[in-house]
Amino acid sequence: MNKNNIIGIVLIGVIMFGFTWYQSRQYREQAEIQAQRDSIAMAEKLAAMAMDSVKRAQGLAADGNTAGVRVSGMPVYKDSLLTEARLASPEILSISNDRIEVDFTTKGAQPYSVRLKDYRAYKDSSALELIKPDMSKYNLSLYAGETINTGDLVFRVAEKTDSSVVMRLHFAQGGYLQQKYTLAEDSYMLRNELSFVGIDNFVPRNVSMFDIDWSVIIPRLEKGYKNEKQYSKLAYYFDGEKKPEEIAKGRDGSARADTKFKWFAFHQQFFSAIMTAGNDFASADFGLKYYQEEDESRNLMACSAKLRSELNRGAGDVVVPFEFYFGPNDYRILKSYDRKYEKTIPLGGWLVNWISRFVIIPCFDFIGRFISNYGIVILIMTLLIKLVISPLTIKSFKSSAKMSAIKPEVDKLNQKYPNEKDAMKKQQAMMELYRRAGISPMGGCLPMLLQFPILFAMFRFFPASIELRQQKFLWAEDLSAYDSILDLPFNIPLYGDHVSLFALLMAVSMFIYSRMTASQMSNDPNMAGMKFMSLYMMPIMMLFICNNLSSALSYYYLLSNLITMLMTWYIRKFVVTEAKVRAEMEANAGKPAKKSKWQMKLEEAQKMQEQMMREQQKKRR
Predict the structure, then answer these.
(1) 62, 80, 96: which is the final residue of a domain?
(2) Helices 551-570 and 390-405 sit at what angle, rounded to 10 degrees?
């Protein structure tokens, strides 16, 4: 590598580090400003709520009866039963099955908290709370002679069992609004029937829509904030489409759906809260905002969905069915509902997704039935994948070994044809050398390219695999998150504030393998930059990338590199030795050249280029 290349690479590194440092500083300053604004806004909101409570209390004391309560001179509701519901005290009810437990508040007849029994929180061994108490607001807005919001009103409990609850809001004119929630046995699905009983008594005939406002604060549930945030999002699905629309993947976002859609999901890395409409939603406004890593309450994201639903009225009562899924992002479980829920799991594009769904996931699940240690499962799966693609790998390794064996001849040709004007002669000589050695020009590249989809599939699979969540292996306490052997007292831009041993070992193995294969590269000065990238830059880049990702991913790449190095050593030592290559070259020296179509086209292109060069020289004369 010459002096100019070294200076250029150093300057690029300095510029990248400086830009990263500057962006990080700007981000922190903006975050502090936004935090101050949010604090001020929250303080103003709390003050307004406190003032409203005082005014309500003053109005109640002045009037002395619930039927004519006034706040700031305005009646709360015309309907006396609604006013009574406004002033009633709420209670908390609970239903459960073997999978989940859901608490409800009679104020708004809505979910109050959700706990998953099969999973545990990261910080302790308690049941995982997907929705913490009072962190969900599920309100209906409806015009019933006057605009009502169920979030302000306390429903009456009509029925209650271990797995179901029925709550009603009565109207003075007759009829009632009913919310019925039912948990099926051994399921994460909560069924919801919203009924308008005696609807003609309290809803005008010209009312054909009602609004739903569901907002949820999802807490942090995993070890690594950056990884958890990166794989969390909001998704919504139009019936008949191949996959859902997604917003806010790792950053704040919003979207509007102006046409009918089937369901939407508040999707955390490993768990989701999904709401499905039996008759489709008419439209919606979605929003998602992430909390800072320093948030004292350890909240991850604030999700909101402002929905509009049709009120399809007939001759009698109206029942509007909904379903809530509160559960894990387990591919098999989500797929079992046949709603395309599994499409929220980020498995990559169509080819990578296909490999994940039909190869990686079935293989992983099959091995996991017999072995409980997922570190061993990953080892066996890596060996199986290497075995399946071994024909391609061996062909690539053989080509690499032959390239290494003929490297002295390649260097001689580079010395013989140092000038660009001799490029055609050099290329022809190279092709003849490759022919005698039995090397295909694409023999090493094509098999490697065919393996890339599998590498990308594994890159997608491990961070999204809930089976690895909180699974220990060696020094890693959670294979779905990064493994840390040293927590740093400072943060390195793009790297983090810890040292992942699996990521470090993976980078070292990549460096060693690059050293093993560097011998086959030409000494041509034009290849110096590529050598530097392969030997140093790629391992460093992968170290920075994998330090905050799933330790299972780094572990897999480490195993893959070790197996690859072992295969390379074996082939070079016993299969494709330098003596065997030279013997093959001598045997092919006197044989007529068998040209492939690719070689014939290349020679035709070379002849045309030589002809053009001769014509240009004639014109210059």
Answers:
(1) 62
(2) 50
What does the alpha-carbon distance between residue 41 and residue 35 come to, in Å, rounded to a whole number?
A: 10
Are both 488 and 615 inside the same structural domain? no
**In this structure, what are the phi and psi dihedrals at residue 257, rounded to the nearest 5 degrees?**
-110, 115
- Give yes or no: residues 192 and 165 share one domain: yes
- Report which secondary-structure segment, H or E, holds 425: helix 423-437
Rg (CA), the chain: 33
Q: CB of 252 within 8 A of CB of 234?
A: no
Angle between helices 390-405 and 407-416 (to 10 degrees): 50
Burial class (CB in 10 A: 0-12, 13-18, 19+), 348: middle
- Per-residue DSSP letter, 171: -
- Cβ contact 368:377 at 8 Å: yes
55-93: buried (b, 16+ CB within 10 Å) or exposed (e) per residue? ebeebbeeeeeeeebebeeeebbebebbbbbbeeeeeeb
The answer to whether residues 325 and 272 touch, using CB atoms and an 8 Å cutoff, is yes
Length of the chain: 621
Separation between Cα atoms, residue 130 and residue 136, nearest integer Å? 10
| Helices and strands (DSSP H and E) totals, the chain | 17, 23
For residues 509, 515, 521 and 522, what is the CA-based torsion angle, rounded to 10 degrees? 160
Q: Helix axis angle, 578-589 relative to 390-405, nearest 10°?
A: 80
Structure tokens at 383: 């060996």
The answer to whether residues 283 and 406 belong to one domain is no
pTM tops 0.70: yes
Give the C-alpha separation, 84 to 478, whole Å. 51
Specify if 70 maps to a domain. no
Count of domains observed in the chain? 4
- Boundary of a domain, candidates 46, 62, 78: 62
Whether the CB-CB separation of 348 and 356 falls below 8 Å is answered with: yes
Contacts 24+ apart (CB under 8 A), 224-230: 224/481, 224/482, 224/548, 225/293, 225/300, 226/293, 226/496, 226/548, 227/269, 227/463, 227/481, 227/482, 227/548, 227/549, 227/550, 228/268, 228/269, 228/300, 229/290, 229/300, 229/301, 230/269
**Tens digit of each residue's pLDDT (9 = 90 or more) over 92-150:** 999 999 999 999 999 999 999 999 998 987 766 677 999 999 899 999 999 988 889 99
User: Beta-carbon neighbour count of residue 35 at 10 Å?
Assistant: 13
Model pLDDT for residues 505-558, shown as the tens digit of each residue? 999 998 888 887 776 555 555 556 666 777 778 888 888 888 888 889 899 989
Q: Helix 445-464 vs helix 551-570: angle between axes, to the nearest 10 degrees?
A: 150
The verdict on 229 and 323 lying in the same domain is yes
Is 199 within 8 Å of 457 (Cβ atoms)? no
Bridging pattern class, strands 299-310 and 318-328: unpaired
Domain coverage including residue 36: 1-62
Give me the residues of the chain with pLDDT under 50, please.
1-3, 5, 8, 19, 22, 27, 33, 35-36, 39-40, 42-51, 53-75
Q: Give SS3 for 198.
A: coil
* Amino acid (one-letter) located at 333: I
Residue labelled with tokens 């271990």:
162
